[in-house]
């Protein structure tokens, strides 16, 4: 199974795409008699949905990327 997967530029866009794709996979698994797989895929969908709804965190003021104070 090969195909082109678009490459979203932002993490929020990637999470939205993953949410949509996993919803379709969850439905396919459920309709195919694989309830545990559907459940696991739905957990991934819910994680992606959370990422879509959560605004990106900006770095704390005065904190270097390594966590060192200026």
Number of helices: 2
End-to-end gap: 50 Å
Stretches with pLDDT under 50, minimum 5 residues: none
The chain-level structural class is mainly alpha
Shape: elongated
Total strands: the figure is: 0
Provide the succession of SSEs.
HH
Please tell me the overall pLDDT.
Answer: 83
Radius of gyration: 17 Å
Instruction: State which percent range the strand residues make up.
Output: under 5%
Helix content: 55-70%
Largest sheet: none
Short summary of the structure?
The chain has 70 residues and is mostly helical. It is built from 2 helices and no strands.
List keywords for this structure.
elongated, single chain, mainly alpha, 70 residues
Structure commentary:
The chain is mostly helical and 70 residues long. It has a domain at 11-53. The chain is built from two helices and no strands. The chain is elongated. The model has no long low-confidence stretch (mean pLDDT 83).
